[in-house]
Every structure is written in C-alpha cells, then in structure tokens.
Design brief:
140 residues; mainly alpha; Glycoprotein, Type 4 Pilin; 3-stranded antiparallel β-sheet
C-alpha cells in the first residue's frame, strides 16, 4: 500500500513547476506582442507612403489637364467650383481622400513657382515636424 501512495504523490506538478511554466509563457507572449506591434507600425507607415505616392501622381495628372495643381486634395476627386468638367478631366482618384492611417488629414501644399507639391502625414504621434512623420513627397 505504501507504494501506491508514493506514486500518486510523485505523479503531479509542484506549484513551483507550474509557476515556472506560466512565467515562460508570459515572456513568450510578450515577445510575440512586441513583434506584432512593430509589424503593424511598419505596415501603417508603408500604407501612408503608398497613399502619398498615389496622390502625387493624381496631382500631376490634374496639372496636365487643368494647367495648375489642385487647390486642395479634394479637387482630385470632386470637380472644383468654377471649373468645367471637361477642363477638370477627373476624377483622378477612385475614392475621396481619407485621413492617413492614424486618422489625421494629410498635409498638402502647392508651390506653382517651383512646380511642385508637398504631401505629408504627421505619423503616429499626430504632430508635424517630428521624426516619425512620413517623409514628404515632392512632385516635380
């Protein structure tokens, strides 16, 4: 009878073993979470870059048809007031301009004298002029 009691006592896990396994699982989960967050941040930045490039091309097409860059980015999708539909030649985008991936409006400036437009995104911190801004794209 003593043999049965000893084998039952040795067959389970101790509290220390369970805590050690749980600690290892928590560390692995933490590492996985950091990796996913970094991947998501990179994907959002890439999305903003692609959207800026698309708007840059649309601005170039707008200028070819209208003779100047659009006053606002909305003019790429909606016919501006005071311009005929034939002169406008749009829409230049499949859908209206949305906010950047962080739900901020894109910044748009045109420089007719130097024949360029600048389109930027404030990035995750939602403040322009910081190092996380999506780099400006110049149209020449």
């Amino acid at each position: 009878m003593k043999l049965k009691r000893q084998s039952r006592r040795n067959s389970g896990f101790t509290l220390l073993e369970l805590l050690l396994v749980m600690a290892i699982l928590v560390v692995l989960a933490g590492l996985g979470t950091v990796a996913v967050v970094n991947l998501q941040k990179g994907a959002l930045t890439k999305t903003a870059t692609i959207e800026i490039e698309t708007m840059k091309r649309a601005c170039k097409m707008y200028k070819l048809n209208a003779g100047s860059y659009p006053s606002t980015l909305d003019d790429l999708y909606t016919n501006p007031t005071g311009m005929s539909r034939a002169q406008w030649g749009g829409p230049y985008l499949d859908k209206p301009i949305s906010n950047d991936p962080w739900q901020n409006p894109y910044s748009y400036n045109k420089d007719e004298l130097n024949d360029r437009v600048t389109i930027t995104s404030a990035g995750p911190d939602k403040q322009t002029g910081t190092e996380d801004d999506v780099p400006e794209v110049n149209s020449k």
